[in-house]
Structure formats: C-alpha cells, structure tokens
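It is worth pausing here to work through a concrete case rather than discussing structure prediction in the abstract. The textbook approach is simple: state the sequence, then state the predicted structure, then interpret. We follow exactly that order.
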Amino acid sequence: MSNSIDGLQFPLDPHSKKSSSSQTGKNIIAEALSLVDPQRSKQALQEKNWRKNYPVYFKALVENGIQSVNNPITIAKQGLHKARHSFDFFRNGQRYALKDVMSIPLTEKIYTVHFQGQSDIQPEWYVPYRGKKLQGAALLEQIQVWEDKGIIEASHANALREAHAHPEWFDLSDRTLVLFGAGSEAGPLTWLARWKANIVAVDLPNERVWAKILNTIKNGNATLYAPCFDKMTDTQDIDTLKNKLGANLLTQIPEITQWLCDNPQRLDLASIAYLDGEKHVRVSMAMDSIMSTVSEQKADSSLMYMCTPTDVYAVPKEVIEGSIAKNQQRSKLEIILSKGVSTLSMKQFFKDNQSQLIASDNGQSYGVADCLVVEQGPNYALAKRIQQWRATLARHQGQKVSINIAPSTTTHSVTKNPLLKAAFNGASLFDVEAFDPETTNAIMAALWIHDLKNPQSVSNPETAMEHPLELMMEGANHGGLWRVAYLARTALPFAAIYGFAAEKLPLKQVLSKLKK
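Step two, the predicted structure:
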C-alpha cells in the first residue's frame, strides 16, 4: 500500500511544513494572468479569501482571453508551466519535481492483459432519456427540442445530427481509446464497449471498479487492454482478473507513461478521472503529465476532455442576447418575486446576468457566461482549467483535441452534495435541465466519436477557428445554464430551496405560474 507522501503532491510550505492547495492555486492563476493582466495577477497573489473570491480571477482569465487571439495561448502556456513547476512527486522517501517525473527510474513494469467482449452485436447508437430509447425521428425531435429551449447550443445539436446520419462512425475497430478513470460514472466506457473499440483502461487497483469494467466489456463487442503488474496469461476469468488489474495515476506516473508509449497503436487519450477535493487537481496534473509526454512521443495521438457547465466561458454574442431576452420575458410575478428575494437577501440572490460583450482583436465580440458554483470550490475549478489550458495549447500546436461541455449530470459525485442535488432538482424553474448519467454518457460518447470521425469538427486543427476559445464554445451542452436570466450562482440557492420543498410539497403546479 502507498503511504500518504507517495506520488504526486501539493508542495510543502517551507515555513509551516504543510501543503496549501489554495496558495498553489493562487500562484498558478496569478502566473496565468501575469503577462495579460499584471494588476489582476498581483491581486490574486494578495487575495485573502481565495475560497470565496476565486470566481473573480477565473472570470478575469476569460475576459483577458477574449481580447486577443494570442492571449488564450499565452495564458495556457504560463498556467501550465507554473503548474508543472509547482507540484512534487515522492517515491521511496525521495522528493522530485513533477516536471522531472519522467526521468525517475521505473520500479515496476506494467504488463498488458487482454480481455475480449463476448457479444457479436453490431454497433448502434441511441439515447436513453426518461425511460425511453430515442432513435431515428424520435431522437432528432428531442435534439430539436433541446436546441429550441436553449438547453444545448446549435453546434452541439448539429454534431448529434451528424452522428445520427453516420452510423458507420460507431465501428471503432480501427481506434485505440485510452480511458484515464475508465470506471467513471460519467465516462463513455459503456458505449465504447458496444462499438468494437480497442479500449485501454486505466483505473485504480480496486476489485469493485474492475469487476464493473470487466463485466461491461464482457457484455459488449470491444477488446480491453488492462494494466497489470503481474505477468500472467490472458484469461476470461473475471474473479481472477478483478484482483490483479489496475494502476494508480497519482503514484505510478512514470510506469503508466512508459506503458502507453510502448503501445504501437495510435492512441486517443481521454482525461476523465475524477477525485474529490484537492485530489482532483492532483489527478488532473497526473493525467496532464502522462498525456503530454505520450503526445510528444506519439505525435498522431489525440486528446479528449469533458468540461463542466458550472464554469466560466467565453460565449458567442447570441448566447448573451438570449440571456437578455429571457430576462426581459419574465412574467410580472417572477419579476416581483425575484426583486423581493434579492432585496431580502441583500442582493445575494437573483443578481442580473450583466455580461457585456468584449471586443476581440479578430473583429468579433464575445460574451462571458459565468456559471461558476462557489460550493464546488477552487480546487475543482483549477482542475478543469488545467484541462482547458492543455486542450487550447495542444490544438494550437497541431494536435487533434476533442473538448466539449457536458451537461450537469446527477452522478453520485454530484448528488452526494445535498445543496447541488436540491439545486438540480429545482433547476427546471429556471429552464435548466440536469441529465441522468445514462443520457449524458450516450450524448458525450457520440460527441467524442463525432470529433474523431468528422474532419470538419473544430477538434481537427486544420479546421479554421476565428478565436482559440471557440474550441470550448463549439459543441456545448450546458443544460441551459448559459442562457439563465440571472447570474447562475445567485439563483442556485433559490433553486435548491425549491428543490428541497418540491420533494415534499406540490410546488410545481403553483410556481409554473411564474412562467405565465
């Protein structure tokens, strides 16, 4: 078993001898802003209440990013450089800088175990949605409903329509897809297992996790390639394999990297592992270290990320116009109620979504959708920002990158937070939709395949973009958060109150009048 100081860690403060994720986060964000907004960078370093005020600085990253087509690249380079130089890696009591982790001698060799799916079904795609299996005309109709309601952007809807129109795309027998965090509840494993994919699964050595992965593969038509530190003959015995497979992203970075570099196939690398709290930053950095090194050695590899809608993004001006229109179209009752609640809460609730358009040096103007949820914390925001930076920089440098905003999803990691669970239960009050995991899985898996197979996708570096931040704008399924009439986090508490009460009282019938 690994001890507490093994593997990738936040740096220790030289005075207190303790690690501080807040201080490290401040340093990274400040460095990312340093060349584009020195004053805000200095303010970040001096911030006394990072946990409460971090949204100010994440919004500044986007505002500054919009102003010049060069700024997102500068921000990404600065932020990633600082991050790579901020973390430590411990092995056998020896401390190394994370930037030097690939020079650490390997202590163990990873062997590959093959496991073959038993089904001969042909690849197909459909979307499970509220008890229905949406295919054909029914699926296209639902896509249109989502688009018309502002749940998804037109580019997302069009990508799903393209996937629907090209069923041949879902034969993945020619692809080798690497899933970091393969057992993730929001990940694409279930669908890849039905699409003849070659799946390289990386997840913790955990009997329950690997039983789930192995059974998913067994019931499909894919081929699994799993890491194992014991040299063993290939077997289809799940009871044997579930106790033997797995590798730790936090403690075995050099070994996992070498194992992947030795794979002779072209790799599509998916960064989907999630851990709670500060561990999420660490696992994001671990995946970034592995993926960037593999990309250097295997130039034909591609990257995949799934963004959270509860973040801050540059958005097309029509999104801001839609939000303004929604604010103006509120009923008199909703206006009175929202103003009353805002006044009683000393303007903490129902703040207007006052996003102004920002001019870019490309001649276009973009808005900012600030959907950060303070309760998720600065570590979560930093972990996801690191992924955006790598995606932006890699695509700029000529690598294929699929990065799409996934909708708010009622996964266990979300619903175990009572506030977030209640807020999602009440989100419909503001025309926001939270998706069930099986729906999100089907949609986002199809979007990844679209980005891999459609040469016109913005994931292809040969497809022209007017601004680097359009990489995150395209294909967005934000569940309606971008177009909410209020600053999202100031409506969240009321949505949570409504969500709590709606489980016990017949409020939907009463509050539906707000929309009339």
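Step three, interpretation. The radius of gyration is 23 Å. Confidence is low (pLDDT under 50) at residues 340-346.
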